[in-house]
Write a structure and sequence with these properties.
Helix content: 25-40%
Radius of gyration: 24 Å
Largest sheet: 7 strands, mixed
Strand content: 15-25%
Oligomer: single chain
Distance between the termini: 77 Å
Shape: elongated
Number of strands: 19
Length: 411
């Protein structure tokens, strides 16, 4: 019988309440390996770190390599760490075979015996290395250029799992569950508390908005949040901006009167007439500057200097001149706007929210609001400690959120 292959791993941090240790044990057993806990020191206080030295073994080198590879993704460190391996890009937009595919969790690479943080952390990218500058960063396919050094394999890479929030516990309380029966008032009040903290600390809050924000009459609440400094970045598509302008010009959204809820004669033409007005003006900013656009989410966003990215799709009417119709350029603009964002609020727009979620580092607080539980499940499943999903209509959510923010805002 051949001798079993072994590796010594170390877990350090809040490894009990973040489930790192039990997840590692389950992983080893699921992959047919075995483990031996050689040392376990548990922190005595909630701010103390714990440490565990655990030996894992498998029947052959390939099985052990698979265990170690998955263990790294949980945050385990290999005691005898192998050096980082890289290969050069030979064709623009093509990673070398065997490239390291990133997660959205904080990641470090071993450069000359020093663990260097990976910048611009994003899931489903590769890691570029500049050894002279001792820098590492995530690079998407379009930005992979010939001659770039990219990480291949899993040696010399360390992933740090998120720990339970010890400041805003609401982002761990029921955060991983998706249900229409959550205590929404409590959740919204805690979300508002976090938003106040971010605003006070000059942080950035991102809103990803769908046209339902306008259709439900909730635009006024989002405008209030923008005007009072609770939003710094806005991602949306052609539809939100178009129907927002329609509401400002005609008082309708898709031809439905926003006050009475009744269809207006020839109202189905209103969104097309709104698009035509914007195109005639040259764009949304020009329409605001000329005084033609006097209200609405887009006016508030423009007046208060938000970073705005409107990304188009094949189904768009028009589109508005401000809408980016080239996908790669839209992704690039979104990536440029994300640094410094501490909270993302995703409002009834599945595709834009998924796109944004894929670009966000795992530590960004995310709040997903949608009537469809499947959408909320997909977007809220980004780590148990930093995501909240609410199955509710966007008007109720924004009305309550604006009310709580206003009642707690110092004059």
């Amino acid at each position: 019988m051949s001798e079993r292959q072994k590796a010594l791993l170390v877990l350090e941090g809040h490894i009990i309440d973040s489930m790192m240790l039990p997840k590692l044990m389950d992983l080893v057993m699921d992959l047919g390996g075995a483990f031996d806990v050689q040392e376990l020191r548990v922190g005595q206080h909630k701010t103390d770190h714990s440490i565990c030295r655990i030996e894992v073994s498998a029947a052959d080198p390939a099985a052990l390599d698979e265990i170690v590879r998955h263990a790294r993704e949980l945050g385990a460190q290999v005691v005898s760490e192998q050096p980082l391996q890289t290969e050069k890009v030979t064709a623009a937009g093509v990673y070398p075979e065997g490239f390291y595919s990133t997660s959205n969790l904080p990641t470090y690479v071993l450069l000359e015996r020093e663990w260097v943080p990976v910048e611009k952390q994003e899931m489903d990218c590769a890691i570029a290395i500049d050894r002279l500058a001792r820098k590492a960063w995530c690079v998407a396919f379009p930005d992979a250029l010939p001659g770039m050094d990219l990480v291949v394999g899993h040696s010399g890479v360390r992933v740090v799992p998120l720990e339970r929030s010890r400041q805003t516990e609401i982002f761990s309380f029921m955060a991983s569950e998706v249900s229409a029966e959550k205590p929404k008032k409590l959740l919204i009040s805690k979300i508002a508390e976090e938003m106040r903290t971010i605003r006070a600390e000059k942080g950035r809050i991102l809103v990803v908005g769908g046209p339902a924000v306008v259709h439900t009459g909730a635009g006024r609440y989002l405008s209030w949040m923008i005007e009072n400094g609770y939003v710094q970045v806005l991602f949306a598509g052609n539809a939100l901006a178009t129907h927002d302008v329609e509401a400002a010009l005609f008082g309708t959204a898709l031809g439905i009167n926003l006050e009475s809820g009744l269809p207006i004669e020839h109202g189905h033409e209103h969104h097309m007439r709104a698009i035509n007005r914007v195109r005639a003006a040259g764009g949304l900013r020009q329409m605001v500057a000329s005084g033609q656009l006097k209200s609405g989410v887009m006016k508030s966003a423009i007046d208060h200097g938000l970073e705005i990215v409107l990304a188009g799709s094949i189904r768009d009417d028009g589109p508005l001149p401000d809408v980016i119709t080239e996908m790669g350029e839209a992704q690039r603009r979104m990536r440029e706007a994300i640094p410094g964002v501490r909270m993302a609020i995703m409002l009834s727009t599945m595709l834009h929210s998924i796109a944004t979620g894929n670009m966000l580092p795992a530590g960004v607080r995310t709040v997903c609001v949608d009537m469809n539980p499947a959408v909320v499940t997909k977007l809220a499943d980004r780590g148990s400690w930093q995501s909240i999903g609410l199955v509710t209509d966007v008007e109720s959510f924004l009305r309550e959120l604006a009310s709580v923010l206003e009642s707690g805002t110092d004059g």
